[in-house]
Each structure stands twice: as C-alpha cells, then as structure tokens.
Amino acid sequence: MKNFDRLQEGAFTEETMLAGDARVTTAHSSSPMSVEFPQSLPILPLRGLVVYPHTAVPLNVGQPRSIRLLESTNQQNGLIGLCASHDQDRAVPGPDEIYRIGTIGSVHRQLRRKDGTIRMLVNGLQRFRIKEFVATDPFLVAEIEPLPEDETPSTQSMAMTRNLVDMFMRLAEYVPSIPGDLLASSLNLENPLQLVYTIATYLQLELSEAQQFLEFNALTEKLAWLVRHIGQETEIMEMGQRIRSEAVGQMEQAQREYFLREQLKAIQRELGEADERELEAKTFREKIEAANMPAEARQEAERELNRLTRLPVAAAEYGVVRTYLEWLVNLPWEAATTDNLDLHHARAVLDEDHHGLDEVKERIVEFLAVRRLRQGRMVDGGWEATAVSTPSDRHGAILCFAGPPGVGKTSLGRSIARAMGRQFARISLGGMRDEAEIRGHRRTYIGALPGRIMQTLRRCGSKNPVVILDEIDKLGADFRGDPAAALLEVLDPEQNNTFRDHYLDVPFDLSSVMFITTANTLDAVPVPLQDRMEVIRLAGYTESEKIAIAEQYLAPRQIRENGLLPEEVVLDTAVLRQIIRDYTREAGVRELERQIGRVCRKVATAVATLPDGSQITSHAIQPEHLTDFLGPVRYFADAAQRTSLAGVATGLAWTSTGGHILFIEAAKMPGQKGLTITGQVGEVMQESAQAALTYVRSKAEQLGIAANFFDQHDIHIHIPAGAIPKDGPSAGITIATALASLLTKRPVCHDTGMTGEITLRGQVMPIGGVKEKVLAAHRAGLHTVILPYQNEPELADIPDEIKEEMSFVLARTMDEVLTAALCTD
Ligand SMILES: Nc1ncnc2c1ncn2[C@@H]1O[C@H](COP(=O)(O)OP(=O)(O)O)[C@@H](O)[C@H]1O
Ligand SMILES: [Mg+2]
C-alpha cells in the first residue's frame, strides 16, 4: 500500500522541494492553449516528483544551480521546464538523468528564506518534450517542443470521467489524506483533463507511474489508467479494511472468551468451589486447634495451611500439602485412653486369655506394677507424679517375649492391652530392611508417607496404645539404612519423647506408648536393643498344657470360627493327645490349632450337607478315626527304632522354632584317619566333631578299641533330618557318644537324649535352651536326658509333670555320659 501521507511529510526533490505545509491546489489558469511558449526553456530537474499541467505545486529550491535558474527566470517571462529526474540518487543530475517529457510551469510567488532556500509556487501549464539540451551551465537549458493535449470532452470521456470521480470518492473514504468532500465540489467535470491531473496528484504515484501517466497522449488513455489504478487501490484498501475488521473481530472474540472465562471463574467461586476451599481451610484450622499440638508441630501445620490456601487446586503441590496436613491433624497428639491400673484386673484378664504361663503372667503383672509406680502414686489421696525417669530406667523399660512360634507371644501383648484398657496394634518387623519403614520417607519423595510407627499411632487414635513390635529378631538391614537404629530410638525412653518421623518432620512424643517386642531367639537382636528390654522367655508347652489350651481355647475357637455349635463337635482329651502326638511336633500350639481347625472343617462340611431342619447331631471324634480327618500320621516316635544300631545317638537341639531332637550317625570304613561330616553342619559343630573324635581316640584303650584301628579306618559322621542348618557346640557329647557306640559296637539306650559341649579332655560344658530341649525330648517320647552338670539350676524351670515322667543325668565328664548312654546288656 502506498503512503498517502507522503505529501504531508514534504517530498524532497534534487533541487526543488515540495513545500511541506502547502496543499496541492488546482490551478485555475486560463487555457494554456492560448499561451505562446518560447523555443527554449531553462530546465528545473525535480527529484521524485512529476508536476502535471493544470496543477499548482509548492516547491522548495535549495541547489545553487536551481537558485541561479530562478534568478535568471525572474528577469524573463517566468516560465521554466519542470522535468523529473529518473536517477533520484544524483544530487545534481545531468541531461541524461532527466526524463524527456515534462511540464512547462510558470513560477508564482517566491519567498527567499533565511537559510538561503527559495520557496515558490509553480503552476503547471502544458506538457513539453525536450528536443535537445543547449546549455548545462549556469543551469540546464533545452530546446523544447510543446505537447498540447486535446481537452474537448467526448461522450466516452464524459462517462469515464463520472465513473472515475465515483471511484475516486470511494477511495477517498479509505484515505484520510484525500479531502473527499472538499474535492467533490471543486472537481471540474467540464474539464476532464484538469480533473485527471488533479486526481493524479492525490494518488501519490510512483515516480515512473506518474511520468508514464504524464506521457499518455490520449485523454481516454489517462482516464482508463486512472480507473484501473484507483480500482486496484480501492480493492487493496478494502481488503485491508476487511482484514483489519476481521482481525478486530478475532481479537474481540478472544477477549470475549477471556471475559466469559473470568466470569465463569467468578461464578464458580460464588457457587462453592471457593467456599469449599474456604471450608477446607476452616476445617483444617479447627482441627489444628483441636489437635492440641505442641508448638513446633502447630507452627508447621499453620505454615502448611497458609501454603495450601495460596496454592491453586490444580497444582501438584496442593495434594501433597493437603495430605501432610491431614496427617498432622489426625495424629493423637493429646488423645489418650485412661489406663486401668488395677493389677488384679490385669491378672484376671491374662488368666482369661491364656492357660498356664503362670510365671510369665506374674512377671507381666510385676512389670505393670513397676511401671505404675514409676508414673506416680497416690499420696494422701492425691496423685503425685514420680520424678523424671533416670537413665537407669532404660534397662528393662520394654517387655520382650522370647520363644518359639505359637507359644502366645503376640496374643499376650493383646491381652496386656486389654488388661490395661489401651488400644492395641501390631507392627511386624519380619523382613523389614529399610529404615524408612520405621521412620518414613522425607516429604520430598513422591508418594512419601510416614513410617509404620506414626501410621500405627494414627490408626490407634490414642497416644498411649500397646504396640507389639513383632519378630524383632527378623529385622534386616541393608544399604537403605538400619531399621534397628531407628528402633533403638523408638524404644529409648530418653529419646522417644521427641521422635521425629522423616515425613512429618516434627517431634512426636512416643513416651506414653507401651512397646512390647517379641523374638524367637535373642541371638540376632542387637545388644543395645537387648539392653533396653526385659526379656520374658516362653519355652513352649508340655503335652498336658497343650491339651488344656486346646480344650479351653483352641477347640472352642475353631468350632466357633467354622460356624459350628459347641455340641456338634466333641474333641476329648484322648483325641487331642493323639492329634498332638501324631500330627504336630512343635513347642507352641499353632500347628495344633490348625489341625483342630481341619477337623472342624470336615465336620462343618458334613453338617452343611445335611438336609435343612435336621436334628443337631453330635460328632464325637474317635482317635482311631483321626486319619479320616487329618490323613496319615505325620510324626512317629522313631527314636527307639533309629538308635537300635550301634553308632547312632539322639541329640537335643535348640533353634528359633524351639527344641528339637536330632540323630547323629557315625560309620566307619577302611581308610586312613579321615573324618567326613555331612548334613548341613556349621563350622562350630565340625570343630566339635573333631574334638569328639580326638577324645575317643585318646580313650581308645580304655574303651577297648584296637590300637591300630584309626590308622586303618575312615570315619563318617552324618546328621540327617531336614535341611535345617545345624551349628553350635552343644552336639559335642552326642557326637562322641555316637563314635564310642560305633567303635565299641554298643548301641545307645533308645530312650535317651543328650546335649552338652565337649572339651578335648572329655569335660562336659554347659549349653543353652535346657527347657526347650527337655520339652522336645519329652515330645519325642524320650525318658532320659543327659545334661551338663552346670545346667542343673535350669532344671527348676522344667514343669513338674515332665520331671515326674523323665529322669535327668547331670554329667561332668564324657565318661559319665557314656556310662549313662551306652547300653550295658
Ligand atoms: N497359653 C495359651 N493359652 C491360650 N491360647 C494360647 C496360649 N498360648 C498360645 N495360644 C494361642 O495360640 C495361638 C498362637 O499364639 P501367638 O500369640 O500367635 O504365638 P506367637 O506370637 O508366640 O507365635 C494364638 O491363637 C494364641 O491365642
Ligand atoms: Mg507372634
């Protein structure tokens, strides 16, 4: 699009300059036809401008050459030749840079300015052609030939002129620099030539276009060209207008949408989303108030709440902050249950839930008593808190139940909670390897949560529950940190009042939580942890205890759980004993309960298949029918059979699952002093076997073994039964006995079991797990147990009923062991 405002800015010419403030005015000169023009004229080159006949143009002249020209012209008739220079870059163009056709102009009104330039108004009179330049100095002078134009209107030109005016007026609407209204009245339809030139001056044509327009000879040619040009121009203007208005439309659309969306938001806010958030914040505020948090937690909660109200709901952070706040406000900061400190009540509850375990229950009650006194006591009818705990309180602050599976460790914990009227929760530590499980992940982790301790507390809803940390000996540790270290802090009364979960990152007081731990063995429990714990051992039950537990607890529970009525199943003592002997071999009662459950399910199936409305029938289970319910007998009292040959001795072992019996076999074959041991035997047991062999060799003569026997024989010791790894020194005397039996060809008494460490000199050293081992021997149907003499005090732990049924040999030396173990017949 052309710049129609160019006129206003003032167009510069080489030597002439379009006067900036003047408008082109239509010249109303008399007909130029009547004017006589001279043969030659001074030529004033114009830069970027063509002056048409019938128009008046203001020009500024600054070039010395041009000023000289004007000065000389004034002295003559005032006529000059106005020619455009086609080389607009040349400041002082020569004859070759000047268009040959131009307009003869008469100079009107000159004004000399202070800066030396001349301002003047020229009137275009008629076209002329330069025939040839006759002078270039002091200014250009050329011999000219006038090119008059036919000005008489024809019908065709009249029509074209009207059309042109219409079109021009239309264009004027788009172009502000064309004063359409003013022109409408002044355009002279009677003189088409004057009209086309006037219009042309307003069109701001390119120089070449303007020159071309000037050079058209026929009026119709000029008219046609203008019509075409104005048509194009108008079209462009209209298109521009259209584009502009469309753009405006689009902009308006976008704006409209923006406003609508804003309005929608406002409406949503109005309708409740904002209310909801407001409500949420309010609820949180109330909950924070109600939770009674300590200062640090409260501060954190308020800070996070502030953050929440400023976050957009759509932000990922929002959910994170919200979850965190939920955790904070839902923790039992102050909520607590009231303890029942009545020790008689406690004992009553323990008795209700568990058969036997007198000693254990007694110790629990004692523990509770001490705990109670430590908290404070009633003095003169008022409660007086005991002074803050001292470091020595750490010892034994935590109860630990240690013993094989199924002896009631976990259920005792539940019982204690019931006795004290506290909430109960259990955290299984088995296989836990990551510290974060105890302490949580930092909030920066995606999907982070508090650790198990805080989760448990939230679930309990009180800050003083009984929490069983089950199977503390199964705690693992790896690169993710040691959970035991975290537990140490949890269980330390000195530290746990400011326990800091990684996720919550504010201290929480765990000191009112009563932690109870359980373990199968304490070997794997880190010593610092053991140090905090008061260990209560549960070795396992005797047969009669199991029967009593089964009758009072397990059977009624299984009957109930399988949807039976108590009178529908009768499991008498004989049947229970049979189940215990033939289908279980355990220290606890877990397997026993499972087997009772199987019987009950079989009965339940039978009952359920009866037609509806049948009479209630009682199913009295007979011992001889047990195989129908439980399949073939699973365990045999095989000690007698296995030890019938010389070279096999019955040992007693103690593992995390309780006491066991194991058979140690020895065999000899021709060879040279070799000793082979098989059966998943650990290093300590291998050494113990070496020691046993050395002892036997040293006693060869006394035992009646040929002097050269060991030179000619290899010995193989095998410890069969399962892939249970066996280790420890307590099989020493058993191995020695098996070897002695083999070499003396005297079998071991079939109902005798033994345990004890052996030294090279044949001394018998004490071992652990006496009670568990004796119970296992009893289960296996043995009648004599050989024990190290130094273990004698532990016999006190053995239940009386077992002491009555079994005999014990307390041996100081291997000689005494062999005397008791080897048959004399
Ligand atoms: N002395 C007992 N009196 C009554 N039930 C018992 C007794 N000992 C164990 N039980 C029952 O045996 C089952 C196994 O006990 P549990 O506490 O799980 O053993 P643990 O935790 O030592 O492996 C439980 O149902 C428990 O009630
Ligand atoms: Mg348990």
Task: List strands and helices in order, with pairings.
Elements: H1 6-9, E1 16-18, E2 25-26, E3 40-47, E4 55-61, H2 64-75, E5 79-85, E6 101-112, E7 118-135, E8 141-147, H3 155-174, H4 180-186, H5 192-203, H6 207-215, H7 219-271, H8 273-291, H9 295-310, H10 316-330, H11 343-353, H12 358-375, E9 376-379, E10 382-385, E11 398-402, H13 409-420, E12 424-428, H14 435-439, H15 452-460, E13 466-470, H16 483-491, E14 499-500, E15 507-508, E16 514-519, H17 527-531, E17 533-537, H18 543-561, E18 569-570, H19 573-583, H20 590-608, E19 619-620, H21 626-630, H22 639-642, E20 648-655, E21 658-670, E22 675-678, H23 683-698, H24 700-703, H25 709-712, E23 713-718, H26 732-744, E24 752-754, E25 757-758, E26 764-765, H27 770-779, E27 784-788, H28 800-805, E28 807-811, H29 814-821
Parallel strand pairs: 3-5, 11-16, 11-17, 12-13, 13-16, 18-19, 20-24, 22-23, 24-27, 27-28
Antiparallel strand pairs: 1-4, 2-4, 3-8, 4-7, 5-6, 6-7, 7-8, 9-10, 14-15, 20-21, 21-23, 25-26
